[in-house]
Design brief:
The complex is a heterodimer of chains A (131) and B (406). Chain A is an alpha+beta fold and 131 residues long. Chain A has 7 helices and 2 strands, in the order ααββααααα. The model of chain A has no long low-confidence stretch (mean pLDDT 89). Chain B starts with 7 loop residues before the first helix and ends with a helix. Classes of the chains: A alpha+beta (131), B alpha/beta (406).
C-alpha cells in the first residue's frame, strides 16, 4: 500500500535537514515497485531528466493511473510524491494540483531550483498534458 | 614578483567565498574555480578608478582603461609564453574561441571532403562547432578512440591521419576523466600530414604551465573562470601568420579599419576578431588571476594537487563498490567515479547535504561517456585551495552514503 499524501506530508515535515529528507526519499523509493524492463522503453522515458525516469499514464474509470520508475533512488522517492499527488485523480482535477507548492511546503523546494527540477517539472508537465 | 611558498590552507584564506563558508568542501573546480581576492579587487579597482571605453575616446580615463586592457593582453601572452600579445584574442571563453576558429579559419580554409580529427575525450565545445562547420561544408569529423584506461589510442590516431586531415582538435586535459594526451606526440604526428592543431586548454590552464612556443600547436584556447579568473572572459592564442590570414567572424565596432557603404576594410588582428566593446573589467580580472597563478610555485602546486588525487584514488581503489573511470598515467587532478549499486546523482545529493560540492552527469562529453558505456559519473575535481582534510571528509561521507544506498 503506497503512503497517501497526508502521511507523506507528515513524515517529510517532521524530518528536518537535507540529509534526513534525502534519507526519507530513499526509504520511500523502496515502496514504489520496479517497472519491468519491457516497460522501460524509450517512449516511456521522460526527456529532460538527469537520471532516467519512466512514466506510463492511462485512464481507468475516468481516473488517472500512473506507473513510474527511475534509476535514481532519490528521484524515485520524489516519484512517490508525484504518485500520491496525481494517481487516482479525475481529469478535471489534474490541472488544479499545485505540485510545486506541495514540494515547497515539504521543504523540498531545492529540487525545484536545481537542475534536477527540470526533470521533475518535465514529469509533472507530461502528466498535466495527459489530462 | 617573488615566488611564494606553497601552502593550500593559507591560499584558502585568500578566497572570500571559501573564507565565508568554512564548512564548504568545494570539489567542483573543473566546472569553475573560486576567485581569489586579488581578482575581485582588480575588477573593483578598475571600475572605481579607471572605467571608460577602450581604444577610442580622447581622454585621460579612456587612455588609462586602454592601457589596463592591453596590459591584460600582455599578461595573457606572458602566461602562455606567446611570441607577441598580438597573438592573443580575447573571447568569452574557450567555447567562443573554438567557434571563432571554426567560423573564421574553418570557413575560409576548409572544403568538402576535408577531415577534422577530434578525440573521444573532447568536451562538446570542441566537437559541436566542428560538426556545425562539417554540416555546412561537407567535412568529415573523425574521432580518435580511447584505450580502456582512458588514454588516447595513438596507433588509431596515426592511422586516421591522412592527406585530407586539415585539423586536429584535442584537449590538453580531459574535463571528464582527467586524461592528459601526449600533446607533443599528437602535434608532431599532425605535422607529418601538414594538419593544424587546436589545443583546448580549458582544464589544463589552472594546473599546467603552458608554453605555446614550445608546444608547437597552431591554436590554443582557454577560459578564465576555470583558472581563478572571472566568467565571460577567455582567450584564443593563434600564431600571427594564421590570424593575419583569417577573415572576421563577427562585425561591429573595434574590428574595422574604415567603414563605408561602398565597402569596409578590417582592423588587424587581434582587434579584427573583437567586435564591439570588449569585456574590459573581466580581462583585467583575468590578468589578476594569471598574475596570482604565476606568483605561485607551479611545480609545488601541481605536486600538491596530484598528491590529493592520489590520496583519494588510493582509498577508492580499495572499495569494490566504486570504479574509477579513467586511469591513464599522468592524469590531471580530477577523479571520475561510477558506483556498482548507487546512482551518481543520489550520491551527490547526500554529499551536498554534508556541504561537499561535486559534479554529476555526462560532463558535456557524451561521446566519452558512450565510450565507457555510462550515462553519467560523479566527478571530484581539485584545486590549489583543497586540503587533505577535504579528501578525508569526502571519503567518510562516501562511506556513509554508499552504505545508505546499498
Amino acid at each position: 500500500m503506497m503512503p497517501d499524501r497526508d502521511t507523506l506530508t507528515r513524515q517529510l515535515k517532521s524530518t528536518t535537514g537535507w540529509e534526513g529528507k534525502n534519507r526519507l526519499l530513499v526509504q520511500m523509493a523502496r515502496e514504489l515497485p520496479t517497472l519491468p524492463a519491457s516497460l522501460r522503453t524509450e517512449s516511456h522515458r521522460v526527456q529532460g531528466c538527469e537520471s532516467q525516469v519512466w512514466l506510463i499514464t492511462h485512464w481507468q474509470d475516468q481516473l488517472l493511473r500512473l506507473q513510474l520508475d527511475s534509476d535514481s533512488r532519490v528521484i524515485k522517492g520524489l516519484l512517490v510524491l508525484v504518485l500520491a499527488a496525481y494517481d487516482g485523480q479525475p481529469r478535471a482535477a489534474v490541472a488544479g494540483i499545485d505540485f510545486n507548492g506541495w514540494l515547497a511546503e515539504l521543504g523540498l523546494a531545492r529540487f525545484l531550483s536545481s537542475s534536477r527540477a527540470n526533470g521533475l517539472a518535465a514529469i509533472v508537465q507530461r502528466i498535466r498534458d495527459e489530462a | 614578483m617573488p615566488t611564494q611558498p606553497f601552502d593550500a590552507a593559507m591560499l584558502r584564506a585568500d578566497f572570500p567565498l571559501l573564507a565565508a563558508q568554512p564548512d564548504l568542501i568545494y570539489l567542483d573546480n573543473a566546472a569553475t574555480t573560486q576567485k581569489p581576492r586579488a581578482v575581485l579587487n582588480a575588477e573593483r579597482h578598475y571600475y572605481e578608478t579607471t572605467n571608460a571605453n577602450v581604444h577610442r575616446s580622447a581622454h585621460r580615463l579612456a587612455h588609462a582603461a586602454t592601457e589596463a586592457f592591453e596590459g591584460a593582453r600582455s599578461t595573457v601572452a606572458r602566461f602562455l609564453n606567446a611570441a607577441s600579445s598580438d597573438e592573443i584574442v580575447f573571447t568569452r571563453g574557450s567555447t567562443e574561441a573554438i567557434n571563432l576558429v571554426a567560423q573564421s579559419w574553418g570557413r575560409s580554409q576548409l572544403q568538402a571532403g576535408d577531415e577534422i580529427i577530434v578525440s573521444t575525450l573532447e568536451h562538446h565545445a570542441n566537437i559541436v562547432p566542428w560538426q556545425l562547420l562539417a554540416y555546412e561544408r561537407g567535412l568529415r569529423i573523425v574521432a580518435v578512440p580511447l584505450l580502456a584506461n582512458g588514454q588516447l589510442d595513438m596507433d588509431a590516431y596515426a592511422a586516421l591521419l591522412g592527406n585530407r586531415t586539415r585539423l586536429v582538435a584535442i584537449t590538453a586535459l580531459s574535463n571528464a576523466i582527467g586524461t592528459r594526451p601526449d600533446l607533443a606526440a599528437v602535434i608532431a604526428a599532425a605535422a607529418t600530414v601538414g594538419a593544424r592543431v587546436l589545443v583546448d586548454a580549458s582544464q589544463a590552464v589552472a594546473h599546467d604551465v603552458i608554453d605555446v612556443q614550445a608546444l608547437g600547436a597552431d591554436f590554443l584556447v582557454f577560459s578564465g573562470h576555470k583558472a581563478y579568473g572571472p566568467t565571460g572572459i577567455g582567450a584564443l592564442w593563434a600564431r600571427t601568420e594564421l590570424l593575419n590570414a583569417m577573415p572576421p567572424w563577427q562585425g561591429g565596432g573595434e574590428m574595422i579599419e574604415r567603414v563605408s557603404f561602398a565597402g569596409t576594410t578590417f582592423n588587424r588582428p587581434p582587434y579584427r576578431f573583437e567586435a564591439g566593446t570588449p569585456p574590459v573589467a573581466q580581462a583585467i580580472g583575468l590578468a589578476a588571476a594569471l598574475d596570482w597563478l604565476i606568483a605561485l610555485d607551479r611545480a609545488a602546486l601541481a605536486a600538491h594537487e596530484d598528491a590529493l588525487r592520489l590520496r583519494l584514488e588510493t582509498a577508492l581503489l580499495a572499495r569494490d563498490d566504486v570504479r574509477l573511470v579513467g586511469t591513464a598515467p599522468n592524469k590531471g587532478p580530477l577523479t571520475s567515479l561510477a558506483f556498482s549499486h548507487a546512482h551518481p546523482f543520489d550520491v551527490a545529493q547526500f554529499l551536498d547535504a554534508r556541504g561537499i560540492a561535486v559534479r554529476v552527469g555526462h560532463h558535456c562529453a557524451q561521446p566519452l561517456m558512450d565510450a565507457f558505456n555510462l550515462s553519467s559519473t560523479l566527478r571530484i575535481s581539485l584545486s590549489a585551495y583543497n586540503v587533505s582534510s577535504d579528501i578525508d571528509t569526502l571519503l567518510a561521507a562516501l562511506d556513509d552514503t554508499l552504505e545508505l544506498l546499498a
